[in-house]
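Re: Re: ligand-bound prediction request (bumping)

Still looking for help on this. To restate: I need the protein modeled with beta-L-fucopyranose bound, output as structure tokens. Inputs repeated here so nobody has to scroll up.
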Amino acid sequence: MKVSKGVISIATAAFVSFSFLSAQAQVNAPAPVGPVPTPAQLAWHQMETNAFVHFTINTFTDKEWGYGDESPKLFNPAATDAMQWARVLKETGFKQMILTCKHHDGFCLWPTKYTEHSIKNSPYKNGKGDIVKEASDACKKYGLKFGVYLSPWDRNRADYGTPDYITYYRNQLKELFTGYGPVCEMWFDGANGGDGYYGGAREKRKIDGKTYYDWPATLSLVRQMQPNVIFFSDAGPGVRWVGNERGVAGETNWNTITPDTLYAGKAGIEDLLNTGSEDGTAWIPAEVDVSIRPGWFYHKKEDSLVKTAQQLFDIYLTSVGRGAVLLLNIPPDQRGLFHEKDIKSLYGFRNILNRELGKNKAAGASATASNFRGKAGAYAAGNAVDNSNETYWATDDEVTTASLEINTGKVQTFKYIMLQEYIKLGQRVKSFTVEVWNNDAWQQVAAGTTIGYKRILKLTPVKAGKVRVNITASKACPLISNVALY
Ligand code: FUL
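Reply:
Sorry for the wait, this slipped through. Here it is.
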């Protein structure tokens, strides 16, 4: 409100007396800065760990990319137990399962009525099986969200490259989005390798990845069926690819990016995808897809190459710990089960996570700040140590550098610090440092750039009772919802 000097209007007088009665109520919440997540994107961030299940005819042909000429007769995972997949995922902390309903080879894991190249012509359950249904039912039973991967590139179809194929693809989306309950995430893979069987043509086909699929029309069709689905593609619009398949998000990781600068399949934008951009015009956070094995599909020869529990934990730190969501692939074997080796790593990973990040030593600590918004309790430092995502420490609008001091009451050893921004109002922090009170002086033990939904920094183990977080640059007043020490 702008009031000219010396002239107090009736409205202003009312404001003054009301603010006298209730000082805190007058402190306005910070305005959003830049793009903000939709409720569905926010729920996606909160999952933190997401799982991929790559399963198809490749599991039987020992390939990563089937050519498209494989006989459906090869598919017979006689002991398939999607309940096992879901139970293991649930028990090891994953929140969603995304199934490859159709990979690039075109074989469909459900009895679609639009092609013969499917499970209905396989020996599995004498052609009566439906693995999409088994997986979605298992997710429901174990309280996991369900997602689908339907490869746009199809090396089996004779009509691939023509408009007919787009109709085919959309028909299949209709089946998947109307027959299996809520689908929370849809994966549009950008891979378009060129050569394939294509109904016997056995040739190389090139499509224009930007125009051929007419994504706007396809997405709007899906949204009409399920408005809250999150779309993954290199370019979003829901979530973006992180630019590599090694499990590593950028140390600087903005949830914002400008869609004009990227589209699915565009080459040479991996670095941009990895970090996002500070001034990006849309909220399109990075999803870190990585496999527990070297390949995406099961290969016996990789049984000795399953990532260890420690490797998975390290990947957790470079994905979830950098403000992204981890999408870890666990491929069922030829029985149709998660392999014992993979299961062992998953439970081991969860044990390390519980051991390393299970007990927040800042819980119940006292906190003070160099500045807090309007001196109102609603924005005070304590909100950053109350373990709630709904409250936050905020500074006054003009204050973009500030410190938060946490006193845990006793000297303890810390190995990690975890920070979270209140991203509902946009991502803000550009850089920060962490200090501990040691020998009567502040000693810097860590520094970082972005925070976003979550940032975890591994420290050289340090003993201290007091920790200070200094926000050294921010797009606007910083909003810190949680700081934890482990
Ligand atoms: C890639 C595909 O080509 C791989 O086979 C796998 O599905 C991975 C998740 O995405 O683009």
